[in-house]
Amino acid sequence: MISKIYLAGDHAGFKLKEKLKLFLVKGGYKIEDLGPYEYNPDDDYPDFVMPLAKKVAKEKNSRGILIAGSGQGEAIAANRIINVRAALYHGGSTKIVEMARKHNNANILSFGARFVKEAEVKKAINLFLNVKFEAGRHARRIKKIEKYSQKL
After folding, report:
1. Known catalytic residues?
2. In angstroms, rounded to a whole number, what is the distance separating the alpha carbons of residues 7 and 139?
3. Per-residue pLDDT, 152
4. Which domains does the chain have, with CATH numbers?
5. What is the mean pLDDT for each group of 10 consecutive residues in the chain (152 residues)?
6. How many Å apart are CA 64 and CA 33, to the nearest integer?
7. Which residue, 27, 62, 108, 138, is most buried by CB atoms nearer than 10 A?
8. Residues 96, 112: contact at Cβ < 8 Å?
9. Number of helices (H), then strands (E), in the chain
């Protein structure tokens, strides 16, 4: 069961993040918005993404959703934190979201607000929150990622 969903992004994703907050609350999820809290074209996504990634890494049953311009830099930043597995979705087929959960146990989903439609995002979020990790050989691979990350 998901304990909490953390949201964060940047100015380019601000409007969509605000809509997704309502969507998630209506879905009965406990959420925490880590910013930005207002539109500011000069904000820097690491200021919001890194605190989210650290919280998700510490809270095993939590998930994170990032909404920014491309989603790419945000996923790269989040993946710097050990025990974070951030996946990127740019719209179209949601198969990548399904596989990110099943095979990679992704705990953060990053969206490029400039590339996705609101309906696509909602569909992807529903998958991200409901598809179960298959474990097995995939768990072995994740343990290896964590092992090698520790040595950096």
Report:
1. 74, 103
2. 26
3. 55
4. 5-150 (3.40.1400.10)
5. 96 97 97 98 97 97 97 97 96 96 97 96 98 90 85 58
6. 10
7. 108
8. no
9. 6, 5
C-beta separation of 57 from 84 below 8 A: yes
The answer to whether 5 touches 23, Cβ cutoff 8 Å, is no
Cis preceding-peptide flag for 36 (omega within 30 of 0): yes
Amino acid at 10: D
Distance CA(4)–CA(30), nearest Å, equals 5
Question: b/e per residue, 65-86, with b = 16+ CB within 10 A?
Answer: bbbbbbbebbbebbbebeebbb
Nearest of 64, 112, 115, 111 to residue 85 by alpha carbon: 64
